[in-house]
Amino acid sequence: MSIADIKKNTQAKMDQSIAAFKNNLSKIRTGRASPALLDTIHVEYYGNMVPLSQVANVALIDARTISVQPWERSMAAKVEKAIRESDLGLNPASMGDLIRVPMPPMSEERRKEMTKIVRSEGENAKIAVRNLRRDANEAVKKLVKDKEASEDDQKRSEADIQKLTDKHIAEIDALVSSKEQEVMAV
Fold this sequence. Notes:
Elements: H1 3-26, E1 42-45, E2 48-51, E3 56-62, E4 65-70, H2 76-85, E5 93-95, E6 98-102, H3 108-145, H4 151-184
Antiparallel strand pairs: 1-2, 3-4, 4-6, 5-6
Helix pairs in contact: 1-3, 1-4, 3-4
């Protein structure tokens, strides 16, 4: 494996870390409704636990209401129960075969709690990026030790890997700050 391969792999893995972080952020509840909020909910369907999106159509009615329409009428009660029992603090209301999930307004205390969760997720993403930097630097050091690369190449590649790390950490910081603003907006 060459230094270029190590850099390319590190770049790809750091991009994956950012994508996973964005996915985690989408599941953090703000004052607004988002269908992604219900992605973590699983429903019993013929003896198996399946994601809600596989047994129902999830859409937005307005900025504060999610609609869930089960594909089978018999699933409505199970879907409603799964949403109610989730740790999201939602209270679904059944209207025939359509389930409306209104987003309750968040208290100031709950908003502050959510910003702490956002910061924690951001810190976890930064740790993942830093671990990737360490792994890449160790791989380069191994190449130098095995005499497949020079020490000058090592210094250059470590500087490049650090720039890559700084870029990804700055992106994580930007995502955290925008999500905090979104959570604190009333």
